[in-house]
Each structure stands twice: as C-alpha cells, then as structure tokens.
Design brief:
Elements lengths: L1 H24 L8 E6 L4 H16 L3 E6 L11 E4 L4 H15 L5 H9 L3 H12 L1 H8 L7 E5 L9 H5 L3 E5 L5 H7 L22 H33 L8 H5 L2 E6 L3 H4 L9 E3 L14 H8 L5 E4 L12 H12 L4 E5 L13 E4 L8
Parallel strand pairs: 1-2, 1-4, 2-3, 4-5, 5-6, 6-7, 8-9, 9-10
C-alpha cells in the first residue's frame, strides 16, 4: 500500500511538473503600456536624450506618444509625434540672447543673469506648448489613457502635474547629472562636499579652499534661483490648471514624481555621490550598440587622415553666428594648423570661418557614428 501510494505521488508530481513546463513554454499574451512624453525644451541635444529613452520603450512594444517643441533626430516608426514649434520671432530673440551670453565672461553670476534674461524666454514658451491647440486636443480627449508620463525637465517643474491629470506616475528626464531642481523632486539631498556642475575639480582630487567658497556661493545662488523659479512655476500652474477643481496643488503634484532619469555617469565622469533610489543615472543612453554607416563625404574625409581626427562642436544651442569674429578666427587658425582631419560643426556652411584642406564643415553631425 505504501509502495503504491509513493508511486502515485511520484506520478502526480511528475505530471504536475510536465504540465507546468508546458504552460511555461506556451506563448503569453502581453500588452504594452501607453506612454506619454512631453518634451517642451527648445534644445536638440536635450531632445536626443529624451527620445533615446522613448525609442527604447517603443522598441520593447510599448505605445508611445511624444509632444515636443521641435522634430526629433532620434525616433521610432511606431512613435506618434506631435510637434509644437517656436515662432520665427521667438527664434530670433533666442538667437540674439545666445549671442549676448557668449560675449560675457562665464561665471555663476552670468549664468544666473542669462536664466533671468534671455533664457527666460525658453521658460515662458514651454507654457505656450501646453496651451497650443495641438496639445490641448490630446489633453482634453478623455479617451486618452496613459500608464506613465515622461516630462523632460528644463525649468518646467509645474509640468509634473500631467501625472495628476492622467492619474498615472511621472518620470522626469533630465539631460545632465543630478542637480538641485531635480533632486528636490525626489528628496535627493544636496551635499556640501559634492561640487556643483560648473565647479571643475580634477579627478580624484578634493576641492581646494577657493573651490569650496565658489561651491558654497553657487549652492546659495541656485537655492535662491530655485525659490524664485518655484514662485514662477506656481503662477504657470495656476494659469494652466487653476480652474480645474480636480487638480491638486502644485506642492502636492510635485510629490507624484516616481523616478528621475539623469544623463550622467558618476563613476566615469565624477563627482561620485550617493543618490536616493529614485535617481537613475542613464549616461550614454543615446550611444548606439552598433554605429550606422557614415555619410560618404564624412567617410571619405576621415579615411584621408593619417594622424587621426578631431570633432569640434559647441553643442546644438550655440551657433557660429553667436561667437565673436576674432574668437572664430583664433579657433580656425588653431584647427587649420594641426595634422589631424577636423570635422567642425558649423551651421552656415555657405559662410565658413575659412578654407583648409584638413577641415570639413557640417551643419549636423552623426556624433555617435563618427
């Protein structure tokens, strides 16, 4: 009797195991999440980081909708894209503001002055994107349900309220390492031993006394700026949602931020600092696992070089026309005198700083592929 019972139990367990394995091997039906990305910053480089995140999610089968202030350089065929561009008049004001910035000696004070003056346009115009009929059509459609909202941060903390509107979590995407305004949303502490972004400290070296004083002044300055910006955010919040009784206060809405994706990698870039679990470093997310083939003119130009190559770019926001002519001339003389092939990001390719056999001017560069 005992032997028969043991045999029966063994057969039953064996059959159960076979059944579980069979169920495990069967294809399982899954549904992708509905994801909304709102990226209102007027910066191509910011958008590349934000879209690299959303492209990855689209590749995994999620349903992605993106609202941005410009067409993206990085995208996916399944992403639904709504573009709300800046007006030509505002573009000119922004360009003139950038020209003024580069003529001033860089410091924490000129940085803050720029934010209060020319860059305030970028802060103001982000509200216009949310008031635009193209966004409002998506926003007011009660049939639109989202499981998570990504908000691209650039002095626009009030936009985290979109999570309350769609009753879903919010993830903040930021194009740099953790900073005060982003840390505040996740309760990531500000540490006096960690240099601010604009304080250059050699790798493995502590701050000297002068740098500590600069860091202190910078921290105080950014805290004051943050107080001012939060006051403005509150105004924007009331302008957008003040009449909506279903919306929480701005302070409550800010607590709905679940994660912040920061485009930094402290271990390789520094400074290394502790972060709360809600701060996720994604430095390098825009880098492709396999580069695309280079355009023929760039490929041919690089292959000519026997001493290597230099890629010279001042980013997507600073154009050649913003730089003083004598500075451009100095840069040209330096780059034209080196042995390496030089690819120079220059927007107006019909009016270049000069001609040199070792310099190729390009308006847009596939940096990862190069």
């Amino acid at each position: 009797m005992t032997q028969n019972r043991s045999t029966w139990i063994g057969c039953s367990l064996g059959g159960l195991l076979v059944a579980l394995l069979a169920l495990h091997s069967m294809p399982q039906e899954t549904e992708g999440a509905n994801i909304l990305g709102v990226f209102t910053s007027h910066s191509p480089s910011h958008l590349i980081i934000h879209m690299s995140i959303l492209k990855t999610l689209a590749e995994k089968g999620h349903n992605v909708t993106v609202v941005s202030a410009m067409p993206p350089k990085v995208t996916h065929k399944s992403i639904k894209h709504i573009v709300v561009p800046m007006s030509a008049e505002d573009e000119k004001i922004l360009s003139d503001g950038m020209s003024g910035m580069v003529r001033e000696k860089p410091s924490i004070w000129t940085t803050m002055k720029s934010i209060f003056s020319s860059l305030s346009l970028l802060i103001d115009r982000q509200v216009d994107v949310l008031e635009d009929p193209r966004f409002q059509e998506l926003y007011l459609n009660k049939g639109n349900k989202f499981d998570v909202v990504f908000v691209g941060f650039f002095f626009n903390s009030y936009q985290v309220a979109l999570g309350a509107r769609f009753n879903c979590p919010v993830i903040v995407s930021w194009s740099g390492p953790p900073m005060l305004m982003v840390n505040e949303m996740l309760g990531n502490p500000e540490l006096s031993t960690v240099p601010q972004m604009q304080i250059a400290v050699a790798a493995g070296k502590p701050m000297n006394f002068k740098q500590r004083v600069q860091n202190f002044a910078s921290t105080v300055g950014f805290n004051a700026l943050n107080l001012y910006l939060n006051h403005r955010y509150n105004g924007f919040y009331k302008r957008l949602w003040g009449n909506d009784k279903s919306m929480p206060s701005f302070e409550v809405a800010k607590r709905n931020v679940s994660l912040a994706f920061c485009n930094g990698h402290a271990i390789s870039e520094g400074p290394i600092r502790p972060n709360v679990p809600g701060i996720i470093e994604i430095g390098g997310i825009q880098i492709k696992s396999k580069p695309d083939p280079l355009p023929e003119d760039i490929k041919e130009f690089l292959e000519k070089g026997k001493h290597g190559a230099i890629l010279f770019s001042l980013g997507s926001n600073l154009k050649g026309e913003h730089i003083q002519p004598h500075v451009v001339e100095t840069i040209f003389k330096a780059l034209s005198s080196v042995k390496q092939q030089v690819i120079w990001k220059w927007d107006d390719t019909k009016n270049t700083p000069g001609k040199s056999a070792n310099i190729l001017y390009k308006k847009w560069l596939p940096q990862d592929d190069i």
